[in-house]
C-alpha cells in the first residue's frame, strides 16, 4: 500500500468518514500492523499541532483586539510605584555616580598619600623617639673602644647599637617602667639604662596605642630593686601656668628642662594632653613631667614642629587609667603599686632632681 | 485596585463556563479584570508595558488550555492563579535577559505553578516550530495546509480555489505539501 493511500485512509478514519465495513477493516489493520498505528498517532499529533497553532493565532488576535481598547499608558502611570526623586535619580544614574565617587575617593587617597597625611602621624607634631643615626653610632663606637680601657665599667647591654631610643620612668620599685608606645612599637628587644649606665633587659607587658603609652617590666636577672619611688602620681588635673619640669635622655646624659603648663588641651585640642612650654628634643619621648612638688602630672609624648618650645604630655589621669586597664594575668605576681603621694614636696628643685634621677631611664630599642 | 478602573470582575465560575463556551464577552471581562494587576507587577519589576502585555496574554492562554483540558480546579482563585503564572513567567524572562536583581516586588499572594508553566512553554516551543515550518513552506502549500487542516475546508473547496482539474491531483499535491511541512518541522532543533 502506498503511503499517500494510507494517509488518506488515516485521514478519513480520523474524520469519521469511513463506513462501518471500512472502519472494521482499518481497525483490524491497526492492531495487526504497528507501523500503521505509529503513523496514525504521528499524524494525529501533527495535525493537532497545526490546529493548536491556528487556535493560538486566533486567540492572540482576540486578545490583542481587547488589549488595544485599554489605555495602558495612563494605567501604567497610575500603577507605577513612584519612588522619591532621589531614588529615581539613583536608579537612572547609579553607574555614573558610582564611577564618579570611585574617582573622587581615589584622587583623595592619592592626594593624602603624597602629602603624607595618610599616615596616622600628623606632620605638624613630632614624636620624640630618637633615631640613633650614623654619626651617633660612630661616637658610640669610640666610646665602646674606650670601654676597654676601663674594664670595670658596668655591663652596658648589647654591643650593637640601639636603633631607637626614648626615655622612661619607674612606676614602682619592683621594676615597672612607663614609656611611650611609639618608642617601643615594633621592637625586637627593649633595654633600659639608668643614670649609672647599667642596662637591664625588659619586656613589654602592656600597651595603650590610643594614649601612646607602654608599660615595660625589667626582667633582667641582674636587677634587684629600685628602692622606693620618690614621686607620686597626681590624680587630678594641674592648673594653667603651673611650673613644670622634665628629665629625659635626648643625649646620653640626663637633660633637665623646665617651663610652664600652657594649656589644658594638647594638639588639636586633645584633652588627654597638656601643652607645656618645656624644651624637648628627640629622645625625650616617654619622659616624666613633674610639677613643682615633684608629682608626676604627665608623660612627654611629642612636640609641635611649627612652633618652638611647645611640647605635649599625656595627662597623669590617663597613665593611671592605662595601668588600671592592664590585664591581671600580664602582671603575674608583681603588682604595680603607685605612690599617691611623693616624698619630694618640701625639697628644692635641685634636690628633687637629684633624688628622682635614678628612676628615669634611657629606653633603648633594638629591632631588625 | 481593579475597582479603581471601574472594571467589572467576573466571578470565577462565570469565567470557566465562558472559556468552555469560547465566549468573547467573558474573555474580554477576564482580560480587563486582571490586566492592571499584571501591569503593576511587571512595570514595578524592571519591565515595560509591552512586556506586561506579552506575559499577561501568555498567562491567559495557559489558563484557557488548562480549563479546556478540564484540569482547572476551583480550589484556588483565578486571580491568584493568573498572578502566579505571570510572576513565574516574568521571573524566567528577567533571568533570561539578565535583568533579575535577586528579588521581586510582590503585590499578591502566589502559588507554585511550575508544572503549568513548564507544560505551556514546551507546547509553545512546538507551536513556534510549526510557525517557522509554515513560514518556510511557501505557496501554494501553506494555504493548502491552512485551508485543509486549520480552517477545515473540504478538498472540493481547495480544488476550486487553486484550479485543480481533478480531486486526485489536489490530494497528491496536499500529500506532498504535508510531507514537506513535516520535514521542515522535524528538521528544526
UniProtKB/TrEMBL annotation, chain A:
Family per similarity comment: Belongs to the peptidase S1C family.
Alphabetical GO biological process terms: proteolysis
The name this protein goes by in its record: Protease Do
Signal peptide: none
Keywords: Hydrolase, Membrane, Protease, Transmembrane, Transmembrane helix
Coiled coil residues, start to end: none
Organism in which the protein naturally occurs: Mucilaginibacter pedocola
GO molecular function: serine-type endopeptidase activity
Regions that span the bilayer: 97-116
Keyword Nucleus: no
From TrEMBL, chain B:
InterPro entries referenced in this protein's UniProt entry, alphabetically: RNA_pol_sigma-70-like, RNA_pol_sigma-70_dom, RNA_pol_sigma70_r2, RNA_pol_sigma_r2, RNA_pol_sigma_r3/r4-like, WH-like_DNA-bd_sf
UniProtKB keywords: DNA-binding, Sigma factor, Transcription, Transcription regulation
GO molecular function, one term: DNA binding
Annotated Pfam families: Sigma70_r2
SUPFAM superfamilies: Sigma2 domain of RNA polymerase sigma factors, Sigma3 and sigma4 domains of RNA polymerase sigma factors
Keyword Ribonucleoprotein: no
GO BP: DNA-templated transcription initiation
Domain RNA polymerase sigma-70 region: 30-98
Statement: the UniProt record of this protein carries the keyword Lipid metabolism: no
Similarity comment text for this entry: Belongs to the sigma-70 factor family. ECF subfamily.
Record-given protein name: RNA polymerase subunit sigma-70
Naturally occurring in which organism (per UniProt): Mucilaginibacter pedocola
